[in-house]
């Protein structure tokens, strides 16, 4: 069973390495900046553990209605065991009473990586994440927003996504059919 705790100590170092290995450089905010932002009430940086052993991390932005998963990764040596799904379920329980949202690369059949993207989307839908009807484009990539719980307004998603950007950039959330 996966448990959640605030990211600190040795787990922070391991999460930093996992973060750099799991996300493309253009997708990442410097890890020290994530750690600094997690001192606020608007950002959570969490470690996932299985039997006391670090198995992954998540970074989420928060408001009174929702938690938005900005980054989620499972330790490479522990993948394929269902831990990603357990982490998703643990986050829903951790933020009880709030919607939990995330974004994924939109599935575009016939494009590079479409099978992997479809696999990822299936994982989320198996854990009761549903299409919000919204998404955005960043760096030429179209992202679809999925949500567990109540759907939010377009502006709520936009505010949650933009919380990590330090005001340097602004993502514009739109209806998915406008992004295709």
Automatic annotation (TrEMBL):
<dbReference type="GO" id="GO:0016747">
    <property type="term" value="F:acyltransferase activity, transferring groups other than amino-acyl groups"/>
</dbReference>
<dbReference type="Pfam" id="PF00583">
    <property type="entry name" value="Acetyltransf_1"/>
</dbReference>
<dbReference type="InterPro" id="IPR000182">
    <property type="entry name" value="GNAT_dom"/>
</dbReference>
<protein>
    <recommendedName>
        <fullName>N-acetyltransferase domain-containing protein</fullName>
    </recommendedName>
</protein>
<feature type="domain" description="N-acetyltransferase">
    <location>
        <begin position="2"/>
        <end position="163"/>
    </location>
</feature>
<dbReference type="InterPro" id="IPR016181">
    <property type="entry name" value="Acyl_CoA_acyltransferase"/>
</dbReference>
């Amino acid at each position: 069973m996966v448990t959640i705790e605030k990211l600190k100590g040795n787990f922070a170092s391991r999460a930093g390495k996992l973060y750099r290995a799991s996300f493309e450089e253009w997708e990442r905010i410097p890890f020290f900046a994530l750690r600094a932002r997690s001192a606020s009430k608007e950002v959570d940086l969490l470690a996932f553990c299985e039997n006391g052993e670090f198995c992954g991390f998540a970074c989420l932005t928060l408001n009174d209605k929702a938690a938005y998963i900005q980054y989620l990764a499972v330790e490479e040596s522990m993948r394929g065991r269902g831990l990603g799904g357990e982490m998703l379920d643990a986050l829903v329980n951790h933020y009880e009473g709030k919607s939990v949202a995330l974004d994924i690369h939109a599935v575009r059949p016939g494009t590079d990586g479409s099978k992997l993207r479809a696999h990822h989307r299936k994982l989320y839908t198996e854990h009761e994440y549903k299409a919000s009807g919204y998404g955005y484009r960043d760096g030429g990539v179209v992202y679809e927003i999925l949500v567990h719980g109540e759907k939010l307004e377009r502006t709520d998603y936009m505010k949650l996504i933009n919380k990590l950007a330090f005001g340097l950039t602004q993502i514009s959330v739109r209806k998915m059919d406008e992004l295709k």
